[in-house]
Amino acid sequence: MRFRLPSKFFRTLRKRVLQPSILVITAIVTLLAVSVFSISSLTAAPSAKIQFVSPAWVAANAKDANLRILDVRNSPLEYIAGHIPNAVNIADIAFRGPNGFLPVQYWETQKLASIFSRSGVNSNSRVLVYSDARDVLGATMVAYVLERSGVKDIAVLDGGYAGYKASGQPVVKEYPKYKFTSFTVQDNPSIRVTLDQVGKAIGEPGVTFVDPRPGDLFRGEKDLWVRNGHIPGAKNIPWPTFTEADNPQDDLKNPHKLKSLDAIRKILADKNIKPSDDVIVTCSTGREATLQYVVLKHLLGYPKVRLYEGAWTEYSTSTLPVETGPEKA
To answer: Rounded CA gap, 85 and 261, in Å?
Structure first.
């Protein structure tokens, strides 16, 4: 005699087993959809922008309560003698120090967060940076650190403090009163490279090293480092060539004033540096390179530009190859 289970048994089984399974599958699909949406939202988040702005821009944005102005001149007496209204003085040298081996390296994120917090900057601030004399590199360096730390809207004063003052815009001696902020660094490692990455990139097709140091340092003629010279294959474009530092008219000389973008494009074209290149900018200490990093990435729109922060300070202590003399054609 064959034994058969009643049909009612199977109907009950389907309700108890299959329905929970459907619920589980539905939950998984929903979770995946939410995850994809979240990832898409993160991907779509706006990237940082750094722009060079005029004194007129400063005047037009002066009443924006979300605008923080950083005067990064290294001499506090220069700031005390006069500054842009509401500017806070934080010297550019405050952003770097020894790391247990190398000098003048960017501070760890906790210390950077403290510096920005004490300067009244938060992650959502719009930040204007300016300096004076030949320290346009201090302004671009702080702009770079702001981007590196997660700030999205950054401006560098074209022409620097001297250009601003010459334009007739207001200058004050009063110190602004402000509150410290809560600043959480959102580190962005994609904009920089490590020594290991540099070593692997040497000689790779499509990779271009741009070195903005003076020619004698680039060629290894000056006995300054433990090893002197440059990364093999690097292109030497001294940083002042991007600015009016050497303008033949004395009244137009200004290392904070950029040349026209067309003039800069020609400098790059003469060196056969193309927007399609994977550009790594490297220098002496990770400061000089910030000017060309900002110009190539943010003003000219080169899609892949990164900065080697360790620079020759670190590279010269390594066992990686060193090239001397003029750059190779």
So the answer is: 29
For residues 127, 131, 134, 138, the Cα torsion angle rounded to the nearest 10 degrees is -50
Residue 241: CB atoms within 10 A of its CB come to: 15
Output the pLDDT for position 62. 96
Stated as kind and residue range, the H or E segment containing 279 is strand 278-281
Q: Half-sphere exposure of 128 toward its Cβ, with a 13 Å CA cutoff? A: 28
127, 68 Cβ separation under 8 angstroms: yes
**C-alpha span between 323 and 4 (Å, rounded):** 87
Q: What is the pTM for the complete model shown?
A: 0.86
* pLDDT (tens digit per residue) in 92-145: 999 999 999 999 999 999 999 999 999 999 999 999 999 999 889 999 999 999
Name residue, tokens 């899609």.
303
Radius of gyration of the chain (CA): 27
Q: Catalytic: which of 141, 283, 291, 295?
A: 283
- Catalytic residue flag (residue 283): yes
Q: Are 256 and 243 in contact (CB under 8 A)?
A: yes
